[in-house]
Amino acid sequence: MAKHGSSLGLLALVLLAFPPVAARAADCGSLASPKLDWQECTKKNLMLQGSDLEGANLVGTDFSLTDLAGANVKSANLEKATLVRASLEGAHAEGASFAKIEAYRASFANIIAEGASFAGAELQRANFAGARLAGASFEKAELGRADFDKAVLTGTKFSFANLSRADLSGASLEGPAIFERAFMFLTRIEGLDLSAASGLEQAQIDLACGDTSTKLPAGLSAPTTWPCPAEHE
C-alpha cells in the first residue's frame, strides 16, 4: 500500500508540474506577439494599432472598442471573439478566422482579408469599405446595413447570409461571387456587375435595389420596382 500511495503522489507532482495543454490558462498578461494565446481574454478599449498577432489564438477574446488598425492577424483564430465597435482598418487578415464573431458597427475598412472566414458572424452595420475580400466567406453571416463600398468581392461567398439593406453598390466583382439562398431585402446593388454571380434567383433580385446599370446573370431580369427610393436612416 505504501508503494502504491507513493506512486500516486509522484503522479500528482508530475501533473502539477506539467498540466495537460488543454488545462493551461491563456497568457492574458503577455504583450502582443505572433502565435500568442489570448483565448477568452479581455482586451477591451485598448490601442493595439500595428500589433503583430499573426497565427494567434484569439478565440473568444473581447476586443470591444479596441483599435487594431494596421494589425497583422494573418491566419489568427478570432472565432467567437467580440469586436463590437472595434477597428481593424487596414489590417492584414489573410486566412484568418472571424467565424461567429460579434462585430456590430466594427470597422474593417481597407482590411486585406483574402480567404478569411466570417461565417456565422454578427456584422450588422459593419464597415467593409475598400476591403479586399476575394475568396472570403460570409456564409450564414448577419450583414444588415453593412457597407461594402469599393470592396473587392471576387469569389466571395454570401450563401445563406442576411444582406438586408447592405450596400454592395460600389463593390467590385471581377469574377463570380456566391449568393445561394442569401436574403437580399433592400440590398443595394445599383451599378453592380453580377453577371458572373452564382446562386442568384429572381426572387432575390425582386427584393433587392438595383438600377439600369446593374448587370444580372442570364435568365434574370430587373423588376419594375427599380430603382428603389433613397433610404433615410
Structure report:
This is Pentapeptide repeat-containing protein. Keywords: Repeat, Signal. Residues 1-25 form the signal peptide. There is one protein chain. The protein is largely without helices or strands. The chain is 9% helix and 0% strand. It has two helices and no strands. The chain has helices at residues 2-17, 202-207. The longest helix is centred in the N-terminal third of the chain and has 16 residues, at 2-17. It is elongated and about 60 Å long. The N and C termini lie far apart (77 Å).
Distance between the termini: 77 Å
Percentage of residues in strands: under 5%
Order of helices and strands: HH
Sheet with the most strands? none
Give start-end ranges of low-pLDDT stretches.
none
Helix and strand content put the structural class at little secondary structure
Please give the radius of gyration in angstroms. 22 Å
Mean pLDDT: 92
Instruction: Please count the beta strands (DSSP E, at least 2 residues each).
Output: 0
Query: Total helix count?
Result: 2
Helix fraction bin: under 10%
Query: In one word, what is the shape?
Result: elongated
InterPro entries: 5peptide_repeat
Signal peptide: 1-25
Protein name: Pentapeptide repeat-containing protein
Keywords: Repeat, Signal
What are its keywords?
233 residues, little secondary structure, elongated, 5peptide_repeat, repeat, signal, Pentapeptide repeat-containing protein
Quick gist of this model?
With 233 residues, this protein is largely without helices or strands.
Secondary structure layout plus pairing:
Elements lengths: L1 H16 L184 H6 L26
Organism: Rhizobium redzepovicii
InterPro entries: 5peptide_repeat
Keywords: Repeat, Signal
